[in-house]
Amino acid sequence: MRLSCASERKFTFALYFLRPLGILVLEPNTTMTTKNYFEFSQNNSGGGWQIDHEAGIGVKVFVQASSPAEANDKAEAIGIYFNGVSSGRDCECCGSRWSECWESDTGVEEAPKASKVSKGDVAFVHHADGTIEKVVGTWDWMADFKKGGW
Fold first, then answer.
1. Is pLDDT of 100 > 60?
2. What's the pTM?
3. What is the reported pLDDT for 23?
4. Rounded to whole angstroms, what are the CA distances from 128 to 25, 89, 150?
5. H or E element: which one contains 72?
6. Between β-strands 23-34 and 122-126, what pairing exists: parallel, antiparallel or unpaired?
7. Phi then psi for 131, rounded to 5 degrees?
8. What are the respective helix, strand and coil percentages of the chain, to the nearest 5?
């Protein structure tokens, strides 16, 4: 199951201080863009996971980017591919291992935590500054499901 990817979020504001009153006023006229985390989850094509600790590829990979298109480009640069079946790398009956983010995808502003990754699964977070963080999942989704949902 692939969760949605984070889309570009723009916050528009200008800061003004009303010195006598000590009030901060926000007015729309400047733009600041933040980078969000886009999720790439593997399909277990052919019955196995592709794990590469050196490249930062796990069962899940999160990429911080300004848009879905930028996230897809960064994902390909680290070794994620989106043409698995058509290139013969992945099993036809299982489908391609990876899927691209869509332009309409939305997602998370904060880096994913271990509690959001399935117990025992290895995920990697690729931050915009180039650092790669390994996350070992602690989320027991079956226990949550038995309690009545996620």
1. yes
2. 0.73
3. 47
4. 30, 29, 29
5. helix 68-78
6. unpaired
7. -75, 150
8. 15, 35, 50
Q: Are 141 and 120 in contact (CB under 8 A)?
A: no
CA distance 69 to 83: 16
Which pLDDT tens digit goes with each residue over 25-54? 444 443 336 789 999 999 998 888 999 999
Residue pointed to by tokens 């502003």: 109
21 phi and psi, to 5 degrees?
A: -100, -15
Question: Residue 112 — φ and ψ, nearest 5°?
Answer: -60, 145
CB 59 within 8 A of CB 122: yes
> Which tokens sit at 103?
């332009």
Domain ranges of the chain: 9-146
3-state secondary structure of 76: helix
Closest CA to 132 of 53, 65, 73: 53
